[in-house]
Amino acid sequence: MCADRLRLGILGGTFDPVHLGHLASAREVAAAFDLDRVLLLLSARPPHKPHVNPAPVAQRLEMLALAVADDPLLQTCDLEVRRPGPSYTVDTLKELVGVYPGADLYLILGADAYAEIDTWSRPEELPRLCNIIVTSRPGCASEAALPPAPVAARDRTRYDPAVGCHLHESGHVILGHRIRGIEASASEIRRRAALGLPIEHLTGPAVAGFIQQHHPYGASGH
Fold first, then answer.
1. 3-state class (DSSP) for residue 133
2. Cα–Cα distance measured from residue 109 to residue 94, given in angstroms and rounded to the nearest whole number
3. CA atoms of 175 and 131, how far apart (whole Å)
4. CATH 3.40.50.620, domain 7-214, yes or no
5. Any idea where the domains of the chain sit in the sequence?
6. In tens digits, what is the pLDDT along the chain, a chain of 222 residues?
7. DSSP secondary structure string, 26-74?
8. Which end of the chain has fewer CB atoms surrounding its CB within 10 Å, N or C?
């Protein structure tokens, strides 16, 4: 990896809604790994959550844009919104490789999501396309201590003691990082919004104002 290349983080999610925990985690990982920018990638139709009925994608995208409006480090990404069909990470990464030629890509995944990576579409291709950063939840240091390669890619990956992590034959690495950021829950925000309870301390003022105005979680009348 070349020091003068763009170092681009990719943090995906349904962001239903985006909250301060998402933003704090993105900033913390960017600082820890010297990333130039982090894309907040909105998953419009996540194949692993077929029974979830999120807020309309246009509203989630607008809330995401409001949340990062004053932060040059964070940027919304709507590639999966514009692409029809299920949102497969491997297809998004291939598209990002074309959009950002020569960039070093870092896919940021929570430990829970990474534990399911071998159930994803074409998991063996992921470490070939990008570096992977596996993050723990606040207070769960062991979750991301030394993440192994996806089972589907282990014949092309080895532990390298010189760098203290798993190294793919492509040169990409699989790293762990303990998150110390803000604990926030999208489900709790949705619950509080539906009851008309305050949420600004969990979402920030811009997103809270949007929710209070448009009622994506059923808080009309409050």
1. strand
2. 17
3. 8
4. yes
5. 7-214
6. 455 789 999 999 999 999 999 999 999 999 999 999 999 999 876 666 655 678 999 999 999 999 999 999 999 999 999 988 888 999 999 999 999 999 999 999 999 999 999 999 999 999 999 999 999 876 565 555 689 999 999 999 999 999 899 999 999 999 999 988 778 899 999 999 999 999 999 999 999 999 999 999 986 544
7. HHHHHHHTT-SEEEEEE-SS-TT-TT--PSPHHHHHHHHHHHHTT-TTE
8. N
